[in-house]
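Notebook entry, structure prediction.
Reason for the run: the old model in the group folder had no record of what sequence produced it. Starting over properly, with the input documented here first.
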Amino acid sequence: MSLNTSSAPLRVLVIVASTRPGRLGPAIADWFVRATLPEAKRGGITVDVADLADIGLPLLDEPEHPSSGIYLHEHTREWSRRVAAADAFVVTTPEYNYGMPAALKNAFDFLYHEWAWKPVGFVSYGNTSAGTRSVQMTKQVVTTLKMMPIGATVALRIADSTRDGQVLESAGLDEAARGVLRELSRVARAMQPLGTSTDGGDTGVPGPVEGLRLTTARPDDLAELLVLQRCCWVQEAFANDTLDLAPLRETLDDLRASLSTWQLWCVRRHGRLVAAVRARARGGAWLIGRLMVAPDQAGEGIGSWLLSYVEGQAPDETTHCELFTGHRSTRNIALYERAGYALTATDGTPDGSVHLTKQRQLT
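New structure, fully documented this time:
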């Protein structure tokens, strides 16, 4: 049985749950990736590994509830981006005293909406029970996060399935791993529409109008985002009497490449993409760009709300926010000035643009 390749590509995140010295988790995750690689390629599936020991999340240290989506620390924002970008998960976990590792529970607790409506499979390992009691405990947690545990699993007894810290060659184990990936793929594709439904689909960040859902941009959003961007910047072209604007020249490949250097957020209203923004740190500045709202949604307060949200995502080390807009874009300039920005002279301002800055209120 091969994977369904008729739908958009899927991203599977393999989470290494154990962080203790001498752990088997990385070797088991590597085996899972190797065993499933040929079928993943056929199915258009990207498999990435997130090792909690490398990620190094502290014990939950966010002052706001995870359901708010408001994150103070960059380690949380980075973890949020990785989890939000995934369509499905595989957890490789040992069993500690009949339960999951504390690091895994902590990693789940940091986030909320990023986990929702996505399936999760398990590769467990241990001695007497091969880690299955850890899986049972974890299933209770993930269902509360609106995740769907799949039926297919791999359970490795350490004495039988590993030697010298590596998983033994086994056609049966390899096929079991592929079975997890196949089922995960089918369930992920079936659950994808739930991620864009309007029933409880908001991020927990209160919006100015009903039906808004703010998420980290995904590759599947980019084609629609490019259309929205061009619609929005046609108005800018008229206001500034030029078609020579970067957002109008940007291609889908350019937009895809921007995911590696910018953080992008999308806002949907009843499933339709209506707004977006991007930002990145540059020295001490939090550079905000491409703030856009669909023309028929303008005047609802969505732009001001989205601007406030992205300002709140600035890393701790940045001292101010900055952005650019057309020098004749009076509506944009007025919005930014109402939000506390001031026109600022700089040598790096593109021709035909103005530069605005706002000092962050650091605590």
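Summary: The chain is about 35% helix and 25% strand.
The old model has been moved to the deprecated folder.
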